[in-house]
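Can anyone check this?
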Amino acid sequence: MAEVKFTKSELRNQQKRLAQLQRYLPTLQLKKALLQLEVANALTEIHEMQKELALSKEEVVKFSPLLLERVESNVLQYAEVAHVHKTYENVAGVEIPIFEKILFAEPDYFLFDTPIWTDSAVMLLQKMVEKRERLKIIEEKKRALEKELREVSIRVNLFEKILIPRSTENIKKIKIFLGDQQLAAVAQAKVAKTKIEAKKKRKLAYEP
């Protein structure tokens, strides 16, 4: 930390710095509050998606005996993810991922060559996988928001507990020092004036 100079110029600099910190702090505090809200919303989304995913898994489990049957086409391959499309949106200064759509491998089986349950099984499997991928993206969003929240919280604490109190204390010390200097200067001026007046009186007393 740089040593504080006890000058009027330094006082102005410290006052300007304090004003800037106090002006910027509410913006940081607002951003922190927004991020806390977004993190809470993301947690709610995660819990909801976890419930939906659990329900989808239960539906797939009902088909599990059928999935073990020997058929010409492996139904499970059609639940393999080809690509997950996602976009990004700026929320409270953070680029967060948004689920767009999911692409699966194209089925190459013929309806009459497969059991009657094949389409239903594929649909349920793909629905389950989509929810799983949605959950991953929501968790990714939460991590991004939490990372930004940690950084903003550190800055808010820095402003509130270190920078603003330090500037306030520096201003106080400089004002006290300058005040003492001013009082000393006034006292010295009074002493000098008293001496001058005494000298004048002595001079007048010796004059005929």
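Reply from J.R.: I decoded it. The longest strand covers residues 81-91.
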